[in-house]
Amino acid sequence: MAPIAAGDSLPDGTLAHFDENDQLQQVSIHSLAKGKKVVIVGVPGAFTPTCSLKHVPGFIERAEDLRAKGVAEIITISVNDPFVMKACAKFVVC
């Protein structure tokens, strides 16, 4: 698959996540991004030094700058299962 370039359509896919009621949900990337500007950050893995120390902190630090540019949501995805990502969000803000 070729890299996504500016102006390309985002390929669809299904992600698993826990909602605000702590229920496991399946959601399509298209439904998350529909009608809004989003940033999708792919990290190598939850709790890894690269994720925790290099990738995620920069997006957290610049979240307000991104929002000022019209970004509605910053979405972090990883190869980990949703249970690991849920734990990571509590400790590392993945």
TrEMBL record:
It holds the Pfam family Redoxin. Keywords: Antioxidant, Oxidoreductase, Peroxidase, Redox-active center. The active site is at 51 (cysteine sulfenic acid (-soh) intermediate). Residues 4-94 form the Thioredoxin domain. The keyword Nucleotide-binding does not apply. One of its GO terms (molecular function) is thioredoxin peroxidase activity. It comes from the Eukaryota. GO terms for cellular component: cytoplasm. It catalyses: [glutaredoxin]-dithiol + a hydroperoxide = [glutaredoxin]-disulfide + an alcohol + H2O. One of its GO terms (biological process) is cell redox homeostasis. Its EC number is 1.11.1.25. Belongs to the peroxiredoxin family. Prx5 subfamily. This is glutaredoxin-dependent peroxiredoxin. It comes from Linum tenue.
